[in-house]
């Protein structure tokens, strides 16, 4: 039986757990195993592999749905790959290839001994238990991924559970951004200016925003008092970012309330250890993240 916790403790746990677990999911976006698997299916560009790989559980959806649920990508970039990708591959084949890539990637990054360890099995069981409290309402990406069958292998089940928790939080984050009146590009700029997340160069290239579009968005944020003349966060910008993050944490709290304090702390400890191993094994390119980014 899990012990009751107050709302602020669950919200704090939501942020801590996200940071501890995110590398266990996000390595798939930089994995040569995933690139090779998707290329073999016929997805030749990196953007097509990313959009199709993450969107496939939703089925053969159009560019508008992908742009809406991915949020901070230039819709024009999305339209270059979607829906054309679905004329090349079936979403079900992409889903299968992605699970296969998650398997091989974690085997390579963690090693066979760790893959078969009690720690990985325990982390998988705890993370899966946390997902039991996730509900699909207003969470389209989470709901699509939650409809997939659970993998049998513990390390792949762990990856899937972390993916569900991540997409559940991500869908909630979009609700928080909408409530704050922030577009995807504006939110991206504020995050990067804070020193969190992606580097500016990588964000522009991977999200499809030109220097002109980026500059125009900065003009808007300066006019709103969220950036100063040097394009640094103002106090109002910092406060808005923290308000959004707190709202996101609150919307992501249910799994950690369900898991309870003891289970949450254990999963954080296991997640941090495994995530550090993944990072040390070279899962992420150094140029992709801002200097102030924290795991």
Topology:
Blueprint: H1 7-26, H2 32-41, H3 46-55, H4 63-70, H5 75-79, H6 91-110, H7 112-115, H8 118-131, H9 140-146, H10 154-179, H11 184-193, H12 200-207, H13 211-223, H14 235-251, H15 254-280
Molecular structure report:
The protein has 295 residues and is an all-alpha fold. The protein has helices at 7-26, 32-41, 46-55, 63-70, 75-79, 91-110, 112-115, 118-131, 140-146, 154-179, 184-193, 200-207, 211-223, 235-251, 254-280. It contains 15 helices and no strands. The radius of gyration is 19 Å and the shape is globular.
Jot down its keywords:
295 residues; mainly alpha; 67% helix; globular; disordered C terminus
Overall pLDDT, averaged?
A: 94
Helix content: 55-70%
**Largest sheet geometry:** none
Give a count of the beta strands, DSSP E runs of length 2 or more: 0
- Bin the strand percentage: under 5%
Short description:
By secondary structure, this protein is mainly alpha-helical. 67% of the residues lie in helices and 0% in strands. Helix 1 packs parallel to helix 15.
């Amino acid at each position: 039986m899990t012990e009751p916790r107050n709302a602020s403790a669950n919200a704090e746990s939501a942020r801590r757990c996200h940071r501890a677990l995110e590398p266990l999911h996000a390595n798939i976006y930089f994995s040569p195993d995933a690139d090779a698997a998707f290329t073999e299916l016929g997805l030749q560009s990196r953007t097509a592999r990313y959009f199709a790989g993450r969107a496939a559980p939703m089925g053969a959806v159009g560019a508008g749905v992908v742009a809406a649920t991915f949020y901070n990508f230039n819709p024009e970039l999305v339209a270059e790959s979607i829906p054309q990708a679905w004329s090349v591959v079936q979403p079900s084949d992409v889903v299968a290839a992605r699970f296969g890539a998650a398997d091989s990637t974690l085997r390579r990054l963690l090693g066979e001994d760790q893959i078969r360890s009690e720690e990985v099995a325990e982390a998988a069981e705890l993370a899966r238990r946390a997902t039991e409290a996730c509900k699909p309402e207003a969470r389209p990406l989470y709901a699509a991924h939650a409809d997939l069958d659970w993998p049998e292998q513990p390390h792949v089940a762990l990856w899937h559970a972390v993916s569900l928790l991540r997409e559940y939080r991500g869908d909630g984050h979009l609700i928080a951004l909408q409530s704050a009146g922030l577009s995807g590009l504006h939110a991206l700029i504020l995050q990067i200016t804070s020193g969190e997340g992606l580097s500016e160069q990588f964000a522009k290239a991977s999200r499809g925003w030109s220097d002109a579009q980026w500059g125009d968005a900065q003009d808007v944020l300066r006019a709103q008092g969220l950036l100063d003349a040097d394009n640094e966060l103002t106090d109002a910008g910092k406060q808005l970012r923290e308000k959004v993050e707190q709202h996101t944490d609150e919307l992501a709290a249910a799994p950690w309330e369900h898991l309870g304090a003891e289970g949450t702390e254990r999963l954080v400890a296991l997640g941090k250890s495994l995530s550090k191993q993944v990072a040390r094994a070279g899962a992420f390119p150094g140029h992709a993240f801002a200097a102030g980014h924290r795991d």
